[in-house]
Design brief:
383 residues, mainly alpha, name from scop, 2 domains, 4-stranded mixed β-sheet
């Protein structure tokens, strides 16, 4: 009862991801009758085409029975055996290669590609379970396969008998005519028979394909719970999606804030750079603010814009990679710098002040606290 309810719940069409996963597991759409049609049709058509080369084939066949001297009959076993082997090998290639190509083509059309899955090829102990084997034989699928096989045998037998009955007058009078004429009639009957068989096999194959596709999709149907779980797997849980969305909003907000702050670079006292990957515009006015203030900052392209704006407005640029990264990863636009960086920024401001006064002073890299040393990706570095 529970199984019926569970089956009834699976009323949703399989998603594209479900179909792809089935293919990865080796569960692809296939039709036995379409394979039979493909291999049989190409083999029969190949046989029909060989009729145009009957003269060549007859000569090869006659070569087994041509002897210049009676003594050759005793010594011709090996020669004839090798010749027969070549004919058999050639015949196998003539029929086998087109049949193989036909089967692959049918699978490409029916299954939309050829899938080789390690899961499908792996050994499974449950396949040796006789109880499960009997269950598969006496299942609905097994019953359908049995009915299809019986129908196909009865139908094809009836077709052959009907065709023979229809062609009986022509067959009876074959012996009354010349050999070449009789062979021509027989060949035409063979072509007609092949055409009928191919059309019938095609009709059976199409019917089997429709049924196989229906049952394959039925097995892959999904319940609403399956759809929810698949959505979680592909898109993540609601908590993860909310966190990603929050980070995206924060990143977007920060980028917008950095872009708007570019106009404030003209009011900066100094721009500290990395020299190109990071740029932080610092303003220090003891009357307005007790501590240095971050007016603008950016990384990569945004850093380039900060530097360009500083150059346009003749704002001092000082290269200090460690301090630039420390300010970028510990500060925020519109906020005071961290207290641990007061001394380092103060030395930079003093250096800029002396340069503005025309004092020729040597620049010394400021000391950065060990826990404020970052690499370019924001990871703290040990001393």
């Amino acid at each position: 009862m529970a199984e019926n309810e569970q089956t009834q719940e699976k009323n949703q069409e399989p998603t594209q991801r479900r179909l792809e996963k089935a293919r990865e597991d080796g569960n692809v759409l296939s039709s036995k009758e379409m394979f039979v049609f493909g291999s049989s049709a190409i083999s029969l058509l190949t046989l029909a085409v060989l009729g145009f080369f009957s003269d060549i084939l007859t000569k090869h066949w006659a070569a087994f029975f041509i002897f210049s001297h009676p003594e050759e009959l005793l010594n011709s076993h090996a020669k004839n055996a090798f010749h027969a082997f070549k004919i058999i090998l050639g015949g196998a290639a003539i029929f086998g290669i087109p049949a193989f190509i036909g089967i692959c083509t049918i699978q490409l059309i029916v299954g939309r590609g050829i899938s080789i899955s390690s899961k499908a090829l792996s050994f499974k102990w449950e396949k040796l379970d006789p109880i499960k084997g009997l269950g598969r034989i006496f299942s609905v699928k097994g019953l359908v396969e049995l009915v299809k096989s019986i129908f196909k045998v009865v139908f094809l037998t009836s077709l052959v008998v009907g065709f023979m009955w229809y062609s009986l007058p022509n067959i009876i009078y074959l012996s009354a005519g010349m050999l070449n004429h009789s062979l021509e009639i027989l060949y035409k009957l063979l072509l007609l028979f092949i055409l009928v068989i191919v059309l019938v096999l095609f009709a059976i194959g199409v019917g089997d394909y429709i049924w196989s596709r229906h049952t394959w999709l039925e097995k892959l149907r999904m319940s609403r719970q399956d759809l929810k779980e698949e959505s979680k797997e592909s898109e993540g849980s609601p908590e993860v999606k909310a966190r990603i969305r929050r980070l995206q909003i924060e990143a977007s907000s920060r980028a917008a804030q950095q872009s708007l702050a570019i106009e404030d670079v003209k009011n900066a006292s100094v721009v500290i750079t990395n020299p190109t990957h990071f740029a932080i515009a610092i303003k220090y006015d003891p009357i307005e603010n007790e501590a240095p203030l971050i007016l603008a900052m950016g990384k990569d392209l945004m850093a380039k814009r900060v530097i360009e704006q500083a150059e346009l407005n003749s704002v001092a640029l000082v290269r200090s990679p460690l301090l630039a990264r420390a300010l970028y990863y510990t500060g925020s636009i519109g906020q005071n710098i961290s207290e641990q960086l007061y001394s380092a920024v103060a030395s930079i401001l003093a250096y800029v002040y002396q340069i503005d006064k025309g004092v020729n002073v040597e620049f010394n890299e400021p000391e950065i606290p060990s826990d404020f040393v970052f690499d370019e990706f924001g990871k703290r570095l040990e001393e």
